[in-house]
Amino acid sequence: MSLEIPEIEGLTRDQVLTLSRARNLDQFRAMIESYRAGVCLFCDPLGPKNVVICARQGWRMWVNPFPEKNTSLHLVMAPVRHVAPDDVIRMLDFSAIGKL
After folding, report:
1. Is residue 31 scored above 80 in pLDDT?
2. Residue 30 class from Cβ within 10 Å (0-12 exposed, 13-18 middle, 19+ buried)?
């Protein structure tokens, strides 16, 4: 089965795919703005809405500024280093995630 992904000028295929996970219009707009500015939402510098609450071994965690409905706490965990969709997560990454 082949997935047909629409093209959006100025965005990569991976960026267009991630837009499908936006839960509301504000999040969709923030994602588009970041992508068009050439900014990864998870890389430094983090935006003002992403205040790190814990960091371990090259990974960090913050409260999701666009939480899922009906959650009392929705956290984001992301590595400090940029990880593209096709990159491999290392064993050390799993250790850091466990510590978070």
Report:
1. yes
2. middle
Write down the residue that tokens 């959650």 correspond to: 71
Strand (E) or helix (H) holding 63: strand 59-63
Q: How many CB atoms lie within 10 A of CB 70?
A: 6
H or E element at residue 55 = strand 52-56
Mean pLDDT of the chain: 90
Q: How many CB atoms lie within 10 A of CB 67?
A: 15
Provide the total of helices (H) and of strands (E) in the chain, helices listed first: 3, 3
